[in-house]
Design brief:
The chain is of the alpha/beta class. It has one domain (about 1-185): 3-Layer(aba) Sandwich (Rossmann fold). The chain is built from eight helices and five strands, in the order E-H-E-H-H-H-E-H-E-H-H-E-H. It has a five-stranded parallel beta sheet, with helices on both faces. The termini are close together. The model has no long low-confidence stretch (mean pLDDT about 90). InterPro entries: Adenylat/UMP-CMP_kin, Adenylat_kinase_CS, P-loop_NTPase. Pathway: Purine metabolism; AMP biosynthesis via salvage pathway; AMP from ADP: step 1/1. Belongs to the adenylate kinase family. This is Adenylate kinase. One of its GO terms (biological process) is AMP salvage.
Length: about 190
């Protein structure tokens, strides 16, 4: 049973790494972005609510995101572990997740923090060529990430596994797998 969060700034490769790591660890990759898209595509009540917020350019409120995450983590394939990508992003979300997991005698086992220098992230994000990926917009998003993430790292201080996110996809994945396995094995948890 392995419950892992993946955290990192935009452009560090969280989504790419999360999918490969989850597969290597034989646990589902649970992405809030995927949950939003899935619910919206299926036209569920939550999906219609998500679509309404996204279409108006607003953030999906915590109440909706929490409901989707709780529903997904309650699915049979996630009962023995998961790699959660995109949640929590704030301290209140982390506190809620801890309470939610504790209600079924579970906890987050590790928090994988993918790091890269802002200069590298800026280069990667501007290379994507998206209209909203201007240097100013990227800098603003990175500053917001750093201000919101620091409290998460403090909250999960004893479970953070920091890994350098610079390198090829395979190099970063191998580095992350080794770091996670070393950490989990050192804490009496299988990985």
């Amino acid at each position: 049973m392995t419950r892992i969060l993946i955290i990192g700034p935009q452009g560090v490769g969280k989504g790419t790494q999360a999918a490969g790591l989850a597969e290597a660890l034989s646990i589902p990759h649970v992405s809030t972005g995927d949950l939003f898209r899935d619910h919206a595509a299926r036209g569920t009540e939550l999906g219609l609510e998500v679509k309404r917020y996204l279409d108006s350019g607003q953030l999906v409120p915590d109440s909706v995101t929490k409901q989707m995450v709780a529903e997904r983590l309650g699915d049979p394939d996630a009962l023995d572990g998961f790699l959660l990508d995109g949640f929590p992003r704030t301290l209140p979300q982390a506190e809620w997740l801890d309470e939610y997991l504790h209600s079924s005698d579970h906890a987050v086992d590790a928090v994988l923090l993918l790091n890269a220098p802002n200069k590298v992230l800026l280069e990667r994000l501007t290379a994507r060529g998206r209209a909203d990926d201007t240097p100013e917009a990227i800098s603003t998003r990175l500053a917001l990430y750093h201000s919101e993430t620091t409290p998460l790292l403090d909250f999960y201080h004893d479970r953070v596994v920091a890994v350098n996110g610079v390198g090829t996809v395979d190099e970063v994945r191998e580095r992350a797998l080794k770091a996670l396995r070393d950490f989990l094995n050192g804490h009496g948890r299988a990985a």
